Automatic annotation (TrEMBL):
<dbReference type="InterPro" id="IPR049704">
    <property type="entry name" value="Aminotrans_3_PPA_site"/>
</dbReference>
<dbReference type="GO" id="GO:0008453">
    <property type="term" value="F:alanine-glyoxylate transaminase activity"/>
</dbReference>
<keyword id="KW-0809">Transit peptide</keyword>
<dbReference type="GO" id="GO:0030170">
    <property type="term" value="F:pyridoxal phosphate binding"/>
</dbReference>
<dbReference type="InterPro" id="IPR015424">
    <property type="entry name" value="PyrdxlP-dep_Trfase"/>
</dbReference>
<keyword id="KW-0663">Pyridoxal phosphate</keyword>
<comment type="similarity">
    <text>Belongs to the class-III pyridoxal-phosphate-dependent aminotransferase family.</text>
</comment>
<dbReference type="InterPro" id="IPR005814">
    <property type="entry name" value="Aminotrans_3"/>
</dbReference>
<dbReference type="Pfam" id="PF00202">
    <property type="entry name" value="Aminotran_3"/>
</dbReference>
<dbReference type="InterPro" id="IPR015421">
    <property type="entry name" value="PyrdxlP-dep_Trfase_major"/>
</dbReference>
<dbReference type="InterPro" id="IPR015422">
    <property type="entry name" value="PyrdxlP-dep_Trfase_small"/>
</dbReference>
<comment type="subunit">
    <text>Homotetramer.</text>
</comment>
<protein>
    <recommendedName>
        <fullName>alanine--glyoxylate transaminase</fullName>
        <ecNumber>2.6.1.44</ecNumber>
    </recommendedName>
</protein>
<keyword id="KW-0808">Transferase</keyword>
<keyword id="KW-0032">Aminotransferase</keyword>
């Protein structure tokens, strides 16, 4: 039998988890969840929470969604694993279905991985192989994952460790609230900045640029209109490719589109996805234009669990749910309702400096002073803890940990939004 007490698990974690893993507990006290269903979580005592974090954006269509669980379990019972050297139909179907979600007029191909970071790694290698160039551009406040290669393009210092490979130059994130060119500066100065960085900090010959269509850990930083397409144009002029990281922003989360890059009418060269694709099952993918993936035939890459049929069965069910249960539309409508409440809160509480996002990818940013915009990490942590007492699981994010990010399962309802708004109101008024 399993001992569900926090004390028992804490003791084992303290003793047997490596420091690198055990320390990532961004709460005042540890939490344990025993059960999840759709947008809700329950602790062992039966207390219910609304999961506005989506268990780190992984839960796209709902915790333990019955259709996803049934599909994965049926596959696991028949054949749990089958490496890609054997021809299993399930991953092949999922590849076809993912390709169909990409912009028309191109041939798209898929390489399955087990995680987002592996997919980022592969996308970087693919871009370097195709172009023959090494230099990549990445954005400040970007997060792309924990592998060495993914860290080399991650622009938040608390996530960066020693010994990262090089050949990466960082450009300023086009943050419309506190970016280096001031409030609502639009895309233009940031595109000039890309040109400057290419000219001054690279060889001038690029492998590509990586852009989260909406930065997640960065604190829900949306790309202003024209930024993604303008960045692609400038990077392509230097011989490089445009790599869209859709790990957080994909699968309809932004409400208006299946993929975040579609907000800018852009055709990327490579798209990286993970998290929401598996609704909790470990699955990632690189989707690339066929000609761009082609040169890697000479030195193929083999991820042992990549294209695992159990995870891919879950992935197929996720796509089916998104198509049949109005997931994207719900993200748009319910997200708009939640955003409205966040704006009401901002009108009432001066500590809220900014409210932003689209669909069910939203954030509020806390400041000590609206004029100086000095980030308020302490208030953010306090609101976060108050919300937790109110039964709301949020996420602290941003380079200064001054943002509360909301990326719930996309089945969140309007009734939940009322509960969330009331919980936030109580949390802010308690301070
Ligand atoms: N890209 C983005 C935008 C992410 O948010 C993450 C994970 N938080 C990753 C890549 C890496 O994904 P994984 O944790 O599955 O390696």
């Amino acid at each position: 039998t399993t001992d569900w007490s926090i004390e028992a698990t804490a003791k084992r974690r303290d003793t047997y988890y490596a420091a690198s893993q055990k320390k990532f507990v961004p709460f005042a006290a540890p939490m344990v969840f025993k059960r999840g269903s759709m947008q809700y979580l329950w602790d062992p005592e039966g207390r219910k929470y609304i999961d506005l974090l989506g268990m780190n954006v992984c839960i796209s269509v709902g915790h333990s969604h019955p259709r996803v669980v049934a599909a994965a379990m049926a596959q696991a019972q028949e054949l749990t694993h089958c490496t890609t050297m054997f021809y299993h139909p399930t991953p092949a179907h999922l590849a076809e279905e993912l390709a169909a979600t990409m912009p028309k007029g191109h041939d798209w191909v898929v390489h399955f991985t087990n995680s987002g970071a592996e997919a980022i790694d592969l996308a970087m290698t693919m871009a370097r192989t195709f172009t023959g160039n090494l230099d990549l551009l990445a954005l400040r406040t970007a997060y792309h994952g924990p592998t060495a290669a993914a860290q080399s393009v991650t622009g938040i210092s608390s996530w960066r460790h020693p010994g990262m490979p090089g050949n990466v130059a960082f450009v300023a994130e086009p943050n419309q609230y506190r970016g280096i060119f001031g409030e609502n500066a639009g895309a233009a100065p940031y595109l000039d900045e890309i040109e400057r960085v290419i000219a001054t900090s690279t060889t001038g010959q690029l492998a590509g640029i990586l852009v989260e269509s909406v930065q997640g850990y960065g604190g829900v930083i949306e790309m202003p209109p024209g930024y993604m397409s303008g960045a692609a144009e400038r990077v392509r002029a230097a011989g490089g490719l445009y790599i869209a990281d859709e790990v957080q922003s994909g699968f309809g989360r932004t409400g208006d589109h299946m993929w975040g890059f579609q907000a800018d009418n852009l055709v990327p060269d490579i798209v990286v996805m993970a998290k929401g694709i598996g609704n909790g099952f470990p699955l990632g993918a690189v989707v690339a234009r066929k000609e761009i993936a082609a040169p890697m035939a000479e030195k193929f890459m083999f991820h042992t669990y990549g294209a695992n049929p159990t995870n891919c069965a879950a992935g197929r069910a996720v796509l089916q749910v998104i198509r049949e249960e109005n997931t994207q539309e719900n993200a748009r409508e319910v997200g708009a309702a939640l955003l409205g409440h966040l704006h009401d809160l901002k009108a009432k509480y001066p500590v809220i400096g900014d409210v932003r996002g689209r669909g069910l990818m939203l954030a509020i940013e806390m400041v000590k002073d609206r004029k100086t915009k000095e980030p308020d990490r302490d208030v953010t942590a306090a609101v976060f803890e108050e919300c937790r007492k109110q039964g709301l699981i949020l996420s602290k994010s941003g380079a200064y940990q001054s943002c509360l990010r909301m990326v719930p399962p996309m089945c969140l309802t309007r009734e939940d939004v009322v509960d969330v708004a009331e919980g936030l109101e109580r949390a802010f008024s308690a301070l």
